[in-house]
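Anyone up for a design puzzle?
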């Protein structure tokens, strides 16, 4: 088989010429093996009617294997010549032929440096796109947090509105006025609770010591 990758031919045909030749070789080889097997089967059937000839099936098999080896060696030699001819004259694209999809390269040629610069620009754009995607995800997460906070604030606002209505309904005053009025009382209540806690602690300490 040829070691030339023939990538341009593969672009045109859709398969490498070497792959094509390998499949042709496999088909011919399978046909050769089948043919030799049929010949062997035919000889064995003929020998069944000639028991006095003294030729055993084992001898036939050995002879068949030698014959197959002889055929394969000659076939490989002939196929190698046929493969060389097909790869050069049939499956080969001449150097002066340009495929239609590659004509744009002839119209707009570019150097390796230009191609590398284009690759660098593409890489830079990809990195910018990734950064913008990450920033967008962060903004969406922040927006979701703000929506949650806004919902909680609306609940608190509704609570204050409810308290305002209760204060106006029962005490004929606003919630702010009620809250200002209740603040000293709440402070006194907190002080009383603190005194009770301290006295309870002292009592527990006295009981422990006694």
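Challenge accepted. My sequence:
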């Amino acid at each position: 088989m040829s070691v030339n990758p023939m990538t341009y031919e593969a672009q045109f045909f859709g398969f490498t010429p070497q792959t094509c030749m390998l499949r042709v070789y496999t088909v011919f080889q399978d046909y050769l093996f089948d043919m030799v097997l049929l010949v062997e089967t035919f000889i064995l059937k003929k020998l069944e009617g000639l028991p006095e000839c003294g030729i055993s099936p084992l001898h036939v098999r050995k002879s068949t294997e030698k014959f197959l080896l002889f055929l394969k060696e000659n076939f490989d030699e002939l196929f190698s010549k046929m493969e060389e001819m097909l790869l050069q004259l049939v499956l080969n694209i001449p150097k002066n032929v340009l495929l239609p999809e590659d004509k744009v390269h002839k119209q707009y040629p570019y150097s390796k440096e230009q191609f590398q610069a284009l690759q660098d620009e593409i890489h830079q754009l990809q990195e910018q796109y990734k950064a913008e995607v990450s920033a967008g995800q962060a903004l969406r997460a922040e927006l979701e947090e703000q929506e949650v906070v806004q919902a909680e604030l609306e609940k608190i606002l509704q609570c204050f509105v409810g308290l305002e209505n209760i204060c106006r309904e029962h005490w004929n005053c606003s919630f702010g006025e009620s809250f200002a009025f209740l603040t000293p009382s709440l402070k006194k209540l907190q002080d009383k609770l603190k005194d009770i806690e301290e006295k309870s602690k002292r009592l527990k300490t006295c009981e422990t010591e006694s």
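A detail worth pointing out: The chain has a mean pLDDT of 77.
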